[in-house]
Amino acid sequence: MKREALSKGPTLTPWTSPFMGLRESMDRLFDEWLDDWQPFRPLKLGSNGVRFVPRIDLSETDKALVVTAELPGMEEKDIEVSLTENRLTLKGEKTTEKDTTEKDFHRRERYYGSFQRSILLPCEVDKTAIAANFKNGVLTVRLPKTERVQAETHRIPIKHI
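The structure assignment produced for this chain is given below.
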């Protein structure tokens, strides 16, 4: 192999490996392919280590869906919640402190940067009655079901024989 060909490859640092690009490509492929039916995405590796993907709980009652997301160290002004058709999207950005240039870091594991997380909702919701609250690093989004969806839900009692 020629020396020029080797120099065009990725530069290795302590946080990357020759397989990181392959992994990122595979993650991207599966994210795009499975996006329509996979409501929860796992934690993914990025070129600079682990990327932040908020952990989400999606629960359901007779009248509403409730999404809870862990967003530690963030403020509500840095978070955006939107709904398009039946897909809820959470976006946000966490910025680094301004005085980090004076410190010599030997290791940095806290995440700074942006994220986006989309959740495919299992039923139709009333877009005019959605409420989002943020407290102690936890975002809670309550999505009331439409009256039509609530009327279609019928609980069947189970009898003990």
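Interim note for the steering committee: The first helix runs from residue 3 to 7. The chain is about 15% helix and 30% strand.
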